[in-house]
Structure formats: C-alpha cells, structure tokens
Amino acid sequence: MLNYDLVVVGGGPAGMAAALKAKECGVERIIILERAETLGGILEQCIHSGFGLTYFKEELSGPEYAARFIDMVEKTDIVVKCDTMVLDIDENNLVTAVNKKDGLLKIQAKAIVLAMGCRERPRGALEIAGTRCSGIMTAGTAQKYVNLDGYMPGKKVVILGSGDIGLIMARRMTLEGAEVKVVCELMPYSGGLNRNIVQCLNDYNIPLRLSTTVVETHGKDRLEGVTIAQVDDHLQPIESTKEYIECDTLMLSVGLIPENELTKNVGIAIDRVTNGAVVDEMRQTDHKGVFACGNVLHVHDLVDFVTMESQLAGQGAADYILGNAPAEAVYVNTTTGNGVRYLVPQRVNVKNPNDVKLYFRVGKIYKGAKVVLEIDGRIISSKKRPKLAPGEMENVIISAAELAKMDENSTITVRVEE
C-alpha cells in the first residue's frame, strides 16, 4: 500500500499541468500514472505546428509543447510511473493500478485528478454498409502510422469528418504524396478550427463537402472505393446524390469520446452532452477530492486551454489537500440558453472569492450574434462576436463581485442572441 497526497491519472498535457500546479501550491507527495511508455499523451504524434500560441506566445509542435512540461516535471520530485494502467478507483479514493515492474499497486490518495484524455469514435459506431476490408481507420491511427511508425496508410484517400485531426491529416497525407480526393462532413458546418480549414484544405485545393457522408464502402481484402451522398435536413442520405469515389483508404474523423470508464465506475455524475464529469469552478466532481480536467472533461480545441484548465484543477486539488478550500460551499447550477450546447463548469460555488470563467460551445454557426450572460434575470454582459462556430470553444467571465451577490436560489444562464 502506497500513500500519496495527490494521484494524477494520465500523463498528457492535462495531467502534467495539474501535477505541476499542485506542486507549486505546496502539495508534497504527488504521483502521475500514465498507461503509455512516455509522458506527453497524444502530443507525441502531433508533429505539426500551432501549439503554444496562447500559453507560451510561441508556435510549437506537439512534441515541443509536451517536452517543456516533461522537463518541468523532471525538475521536481513528482513521481512518474509510465506503462501503468489504472484499473479502479473506489469511494475512499483508493487507486488500483498495474504495471510490469511493480505488479498490482494500491495507492491511497487524499485527492485525485482525472486526466485520461479522450479516444476517437470508431467505425463500428457509424453503421456504414460494406465489408471489413483493410484501409479503413481513424485519422488518429493514420497519424500515428505516418508520424511515429513511418508507415504510409494509403495513396488515394477519402476523409469522413472535418474535425481538426481529419483536417490536419488531409494536409499531412498530401505532403507525403497521397491524393486526398475529398473531405466529407455530415453536418452543414465544419467541426474544426477555421485556421485548419484554410491551412490544411484551401491551401492544397482539397474539396470540403458539407452535408455529405459515406454510405457504403467497397472492396474485399483492401478498400477499393466508397459511395458518398448528400444528406437532407434529417441527416438521411439522398439517393439521387450518390457518387462513387475510387480510393484505397478511408480515414474517420467523426468525433472524440472522453475516456470516462473510471469516472463512471466511481459513481461520478456525467454530463450527457460533454460525456465528461459534472464539475464545479475548480473542476471538482461530485465525489469529494476527485477532480477532472482536459479532454476527459470536455473536448478542447487548443491544448493551451487544456493547460490552463488543468492548472485550475491542480490548484483546486491542492486547496482540498491543504485545507485551503472555502469552508462553506453554496452551489448554483449553470444553465444553457438559446444556441449554447453545453457549459463547463456545470455548477459554481458562489463563495469562491475569484472570478469564474465559463467555457461553452454553440450548436451552429452564428455571424454577428451576441453572447449574453444572465444572472437572476439581469444581463451581466452582452458582447457581439463576429463569428461563433461549434468547432471553436468560447468563454464568458463571472466576476467575483457578481458571485458575491448570489445565493443558493440564483440562476446563471449563457445564451446566444441573434
């Protein structure tokens, strides 16, 4: 039996940022458990640039961004166990993990930060007709093949889904000599950042077809082609628009799912929209002493935001461990209004003496709309945004002065006003 003040599950950018912040706040005994062989998480295979612009004010690649945090961790006495799988967390914050060196580990924690990241939605979730031939894979798998393993997945590529990974792989495959025929997107808008649409598709003349999906794959041993079709307002394929495209590779970029099996096993409440835990402004779940941050909480568009959110979770965990958290907690739930898909955090302690930032995503594209923050029927802020898109995370801030005016009967709503 090992005893630690803080156990961080996951050694990606979220886990490292949370551990470092807790250390900075005075927590002594911290351990990071990472199931991969190295720290860094998914950043290790993201060799493109564009990371760190917000946090470091520099343009870095994924491995460079990760390396900065790995260096910071190595300069502390934070214990790191890689190639270690966490199997269970019980109601008393006892963590069970396993690895080849130590065997079965039992770790008693005062607090836990969940930072397991997310996984890609697989082909099985899509119900595409066709055989199980080779050449169909997620965009992240293709990224690993090309960037880490040095394998070329295919020469003629169709990409389904316009999330950021799919857009980036369209460019990556083109640079490696493949022909990317088309990027299809089921929705009438792209799920990726606008800068990625410009830099990864437009700059390489790769067509993006909105309201279009893959309805069938063709080929026995290896993929030979796909049939695509436009969809109607109910997202159903339109028969008359079906079109065959010859290809040997179909890459899927159809969404990310937070890795929350551990979270659910503890009995922590899950938000039905984000598929992540329900948390307060310090990212504490409804299970005392357990915090969540990064893509396991809700899928972020920028790793810089992951870092900043995780530092908040690290500080929250430190306050909990060291007894610095507000003695009295009065929680108010946040509510989504018109046009807003979800809000994080889902509840706010009005006794918190600091400003609180609410992150949210909209449900469709808006141009020239206002983001309105309303508390107890009063409009606190109303700011016009040139463009709001589902692929880009937005935020509003509740000031400490406004929090101080609230009680347990208060209401917080964020909505979009056209």
What brief labels describe this structure?
418 residues; alpha/beta; FAD/NAD(P)-binding domain; Immunoglobulin-like; 3 domains; 5-stranded parallel sheet; 8 helices
Instruction: Summarize the main sheet.
Output: 7 strands, mixed
Mean pLDDT: 95
- C-alpha end-to-end distance: 57 Å
So, the CATH homologous superfamily of the largest domain?
FAD/NAD(P)-binding domain
Supply the number of structural domains: 3
Low-confidence stretches: none
Class based on secondary structure composition and strand pairing: alpha/beta
Query: How many helix segments?
Result: 8
| Shape field | globular
Tell me the radius of gyration: 22 Å
Annotation, overall tally of beta strands: 27
CATH class of the largest domain: Alpha Beta
Helix content: 10-25%
Question: What is the CATH topology assignment of the largest domain?
Answer: FAD/NAD(P)-binding domain
What's the arrangement of secondary structure elements?
Layout: E1 2-9, H1 13-24, E2 30-33, E3 49-51, E4 60-61, H2 62-74, E5 79-81, E6 85-89, E7 94-99, E8 103-114, E9 118-120, E10 136-138, H3 139-149, E11 156-160, H4 164-175, E12 179-185, H5 194-201, E13 208-210, E14 212-218, E15 225-230, E16 243-246, E17 249-252, E18 256-258, H6 261-266, E19 290-292, H7 303-322, E20 331-336, E21 340-344, E22 347-349, E23 356-362, E24 366-375, E25 378-388, E26 394-398, H8 400-404, E27 412-417
Parallel strand pairs: 1-2, 1-8, 2-5, 8-19, 10-17, 11-12, 11-17, 12-13, 20-27
Antiparallel strand pairs: 3-4, 6-7, 7-8, 9-18, 14-15, 15-16, 20-22, 21-23, 23-26, 24-25, 24-27
Helix pairs in contact: 1-2, 1-7, 3-4, 4-5
